[in-house]
Amino acid sequence: EVQLVESGGGLVQPGGSLRLSCAASGFTFSGYYMGWFRQASGKEREGVAAIGRDGSTYYPNSVKGRFTISKDNADNILHLQMIRLKPEDTAMYCCAAGRWASWIPLSRGSYALWGQGTQVTVSS
Questions:
Q1: Beta carbons within 8 Å of 68's beta carbon, 6+ residues apart
Q2: Looking at 22-26, 38-42, 97-101, which range is the least confident one?
Q3: Which residues, including other chains, have CB under 8 Å from residue 43's CB and lie 6 or more apart?
Q4: What is the number of alpha carbons within 13 Å of residue 110 lying toward its C-beta?
């Protein structure tokens, strides 16, 4: 069974840090590109980080310098390290995987496999 299971979310104060993890199973992890997306209440789902099969990484300006995506092909785990968190980072965060030839890194349409998500709340 193909599965993506996120963990690591929670409540954190502004300026704090969190590390999200996404455990993958049921598919050849190393053969997929991966991404992290978030959806805040009342807003569209947006890509916040992506990593290619070659390790190339992509971020929108809103999180560049604060978020870092990494992929452990040995343990089939995707991580998202988040620092200097802001209240506007509050959202449900999901990991996703895909392997199509034409890949737009931060576009949700490029991903076929999705996890259920983990909630991140940034508040004092």
A1: 49, 57, 80, 81
A2: 97-101
A3: 91
A4: 21
